[in-house]
Design a protein that fits this description.
Largest sheet: 3 strands, mixed
Radius of gyration: 20 Å
Strand order of the largest sheet: 1-5-4
Helix content: 40-55%
Order of helices and strands: EEEEEHHHH
Distance between the termini: 61 Å
Length: 140
C-alpha cells in the first residue's frame, strides 16, 4: 500500500448515522489488484442491514422533509466541498482499491463525484414547482 495513504484496518456499515458491524458479523477483505496487498476488512451487509438502512432513511426523512430548498442545496454543496478537499486521498484510495490509474481517479472519478452533488444542489434551487412542455403536440 502507498506509504502516504493511511487506511483503517476495518470499516463498518454506515447506517442511521453510525458505523456498525454487519448484523451477522460477516466481513470481506478488500485487496489492491496491483499488488494483492490487503487494504482493509469491510463489513458485508445483509438483507437485514439493508432493511435497517431503509428504516434509518425514513427516520431521517422526518426532519429532511422540513428542510428548505436552500438548506438542502447547502448540505449537498457541503458534501461536494468535502469531496473536493479530500480529492487526492480519495483518488489514491480508489486507485488502490480498483486498480485504475491515479490520473483517471484524480481527474475524472473524484471530480465527477463532487459535480454530481453540485448538480443536484442546483436542481433543488432551480426547481420552481412547475414543468415546461417542450413538445405539446398530440402524437398518435
Amino acid at each position: 500500500m502507498s506509504e502516504h495513504v493511511k487506511l483503517q484496518d476495518s470499516y463498518g456499515l454506515f447506517i442511521n448515522g453510525e458505523f456498525r458491524d454487519a448484523s451477522d458479523g460477516a466481513t470481506f477483505v478488500s485487496t489492491c489488484p496491483a499488488t494483492g496487498e490487503k487494504l482493509a476488512t469491510c463489513a458485508a451487509g445483509t438483507e437485514k442491514d439493508v432493511d435497517d438502512a431503509v428504516k434509518g432513511a425514513w427516520e431521517a426523512y422526518k426532519t429532511w422533509k422540513d428542510y428548505s430548498d436552500k438548506d438542502r442545496a447547502a448540505l449537498l454543496n457541503k458534501v461536494a466541498d468535502i469531496i473536493d478537499e479530500n480529492a487526492e486521498f480519495l483518488a489514491m484510495v480508489e486507485s488502490m482499491d480498483n486498480g485504475k490509474p491515479i490520473r483517471e481517479t484524480l481527474n475524472i472519478d473524484v471530480p465527477l463525484s463532487s459535480a454530481h452533488f453540485r448538480y443536484f444542489a442546483s436542481c433543488i434551487v432551480a426547481d420552481e414547482g412547475s414543468a415546461t412542455m417542450i413538445d405539446n403536440h398530440d402524437h398518435p
